[in-house]
Design a protein that fits this description.
The protein is built from five helices and five strands, in the order E-H-H-E-H-E-H-E-E-H. By secondary structure, it is α/β, with parallel strands linked by helices. The structure holds 1,3,4-trihydroxy-5-OXO-cyclohexanecarboxylic acid (DQA). 1,3,4-trihydroxy-5-OXO-cyclohexanecarboxylic acid binds next to loops.
């Protein structure tokens, strides 16, 4: 199979990883998350681009630009997960296979975190596995491509 290209999108406040509520999100920094994703992608022979924004419209723009440029999306929309119909609509509009990731275990958190709009356009959601969730999402996409090539 030819090399696949994944867009990884991280939403608001994830740039503060390491400093931000480490008891919930862990002590690894955003820089460390980038290096983690690059190492995991390399091992799987995947190309990745990682994009972070604190702005909903920028995330919508980036998803739109993914059409024709990427084979799949991994998205941690952070707080926009629970509010943004615009991000859901953008994911549906481009129709690329997408996987939702959350560092924390949303099922054990506040009621307002129990709804995920972004997740409604995703193959699956991986939550509560910290950085490993991004590697697991790469595996879900790889399996998806394999199955759709059959
Ligand atoms: C998060 C969970 C969201 O509820 C929260 O708003 C975040 C991070 C996670 O990765 O656990 O910013 O997406």
């Amino acid at each position: 199979m030819e090399q696949k290209n994944i867009l990884i999108i991280n939403g608001p406040n994830l740039n503060l990883l390491g400093k931000r509520e480490p008891e919930i999100y862990g002590s690894g920094t955003y820089e460390e998350l980038l290096r983690f994703c690059e190492a995991k992608a390399e091992r799987r022979d995947l190309e990745i681009e990682v994009f972070q924004s604190n702005h909903e419209g920028e995330i919508v723009d980036k998803i739109q630009q993914a059409l024709g440029a990427f084979d799949g999306i991994i998205i941690n929309a952070a707080a926009y997960t629970h509010t943004s119909i615009a991000i859901l609509d953008a994911l549906k509009a481009v129709g690329l296979p997408a996987v939702e990731v959350h560092l924390s275990d949303l099922s054990k958190r506040e009621a307002f975190r129990q709804i995920s709009y972004a997740g409604m356009a995703c193959i699956t959601s991986i939550t509560g596995r910290g950085f490993e969730g991004y590697a697991a999402a790469m595996d879900v996409l790889a399996e998806h491509w394999e199955n759709s090539a059959e």
